[in-house]
Amino acid sequence: MAVAAALLGLAAAVTVAQTSSSDRSFASARTLTVATWNMCGVRQWNCAGTGSRAVKQREVRRLATRAGAGAVFLQEACAGDVAAVRTSLGRSWHSAFRAYTTRDRAGHGATVRCAGSGQGAAGYAILAAYTLTSVTAVPSQQPSVGLRRGILCATVAAHDVRLCIAHLSPAGSDQAHPDWEFRDDQLKALVAAVPPRRTVYGGDLNVNPPGDGNSASWVWPSAPYAVHRECDQGSATSRSGRATHVSGHKLDYLFTGLARLRCTVRDTGASDHFALLVRVRTN
Question: Please, which residues bridge with residue 201 across strands?
Answer without folding.
Answer: 164, 255
